[in-house]
Design brief:
alpha/beta; three-stranded parallel beta sheet; five-stranded parallel beta sheet; about 300 residues; single chain
Length: about 300
């Protein structure tokens, strides 16, 4: 079967660059949107040129140039958005409506994957403010996609390892704790951690798969469904050092939002849903979903003790 032509929007970002590599690696004709708004960001430009050297084609178009965006979309079969939705960096989720408009007008796209890649927003209707804005915006986009009858796949990738694993799920740092570790509640809530490169691999595998059409693909690698206590124990075994555990009751954790800026309040809310409520694992996948490791058992996913070793 001929491989679909793939356009990646947001290709220089944390997820986007991995999607570009995975798309090229799986043999897809790969296109990356190069936005004129890049300006003087030399690092992004150099990354785009490195993609070109690896065989990707750069398509220049602005999200504010509807005709140019339609022309870019018309050259491909699949569009994947990896635009940032994190509040501590840039939050661009609503810009994807311009992409939906272009896809609808072009009329040729066989699959659209919007930028989600985290918790399933359809299950976060009762999320805390101000963090619920992320889920509300994603659901608004889903409604626009479905109203336009655009074939789609939603990817629920749970927790990116880089942000949650080496730091043992500590906030405000990405590095392993040296002496003490904060434990959320009793530390026994099951959480799902996924290597970012595996997220990209599973995403690209889904784009030509009819089983993933108009469904949510959940990434639930069985050996990476761990409690925070189990995560800490893996690090202690690898490092040979036992950390002091400081348990944080839920009331104290939520009260900590009081004097924080918006970005950190969002983070606290999301951590609450993940580590206290168990929002990633407290439901079964229904008929409108599929599980990635069952769809693609050939993928040898990264286990978290292996992921941690690079931080020793």
């Amino acid at each position: 079967m001929e491989k679909s032509r793939v356009l990646i929007v947001g290709g220089t970002g944390f997820v986007g660059r991995r999607l570009v590599r995975a798309s090229l690696g799986q043999g897809h004709p790969t296109f990356v949107l190069m936005r004129p708004e890049i300006g003087l960001d030399v690092d992004k430009l150099q990354m785009l040129l490195s993609f070109k050297a690896q065989g990707a084609r750069l398509l220049e178009a602005s999200l504010d140039d509807h005709a140019g965006l339609v022309a870019a979309v018309a050259q491909v079969d699949v569009v994947i958005s990896a635009m940032s939705g994190v509040h501590f960096r840039s939050h661009n989720l609503t810009l994807q409506h311009k992409l939906v408009d272009a896809i609808e007008e072009a009329g040729n796209v066989k699959r659209f994957i919007p930028s989600e890649f985290g918790m399933d927003p359809s299950r976060m209707g009762n999320a805390l403010e101000p963090g619920r804005v992320t889920f509300d915006e994603k659901m608004e986009l889903r409604r626009a996609i479905e109203q336009a009858n655009i074939p789609h796949t939603y990817i629920s990738a749970n927790c990116f390892a880089a942000y949650f694993v080496p730091n043992l799920a500590q906030m405000r740092t990405l590095l392993p704790p040296k002496e003490k570790v904060h434990v959320y509640g009793d530390g026994n809530v099951k959480v799902i951690f996924v290597d970012e490169d595996d997220v990209a691999t599973y995403t690209i595998k889904s784009i030509d798969d009819p089983r993933a059409m108009n469904k949510t693909v959940y990434l639930r690698p069985q050996e990476n469904i761990l409690t925070q206590n189990e995560l800490i124990a893996k690090w202690e075994k690898l490092s040979g050092k036992v950390l002091e555990k400081i348990h944080i009751p839920v009331e104290e954790f939520l009260a900590s939002m009081k004097d924080m800026d918006i970005a950190h309040q969002v983070g606290v809310g999301h951590f609450y849903h993940i580590f206290y409520e168990g929002c990633l694992t407290n439901f079964d996948i229904g008929e409108d979903g599929a599980e990635a490791t069952l769809l693609y058992p050939d993928v040898e996913y990264t286990r978290m003790d292996g992921y941690m070793k690079r931080y020793l």
